[in-house]
Amino acid sequence: MDQEITLKVGGMTCQNCVRHVSTALRKLEGVREVEVRLAEGDARVTLAAGGATLGEMLAAVQDAGYEAQAV
Ligand SMILES: [Cu+2]
């Protein structure tokens, strides 16, 4: 079953940032869908069972140069 996970993302200032964060998350195992919202400063990830861990998602966003934390 798919899971919906929301991450708080800090440091995004424009649509390029949104794209960087989306791309980083989409590369992860089991990620089906990513919706990053600039105004809200969050990312909603739809994840297949057995996919990436929360830690991997946070690390991916941080490696892309943004702050991330679990909600
Ligand atoms: Cu930007």
UniProtKB/TrEMBL annotation:
Keyword check for Transmembrane: no
Protein name (record): Heavy metal transport/detoxification protein
Keywords of this entry: Metal-binding
Organism lineage: Bacteria, Pseudomonadati, Myxococcota, Polyangia, Polyangiales
Keyword Cell membrane among UniProt keywords: no
Gene3D superfamilies to which the protein is assigned, alphabetical: 3.30.70.100
HMA domain sequence ranges: 3-69
Record InterPro entries: Heavy-metal-associated_CS, HMA_dom, HMA_dom_sf, MerP/CopZ
Organism field: Chondromyces crocatus
Entry's Gene Ontology molecular function annotations: metal ion binding
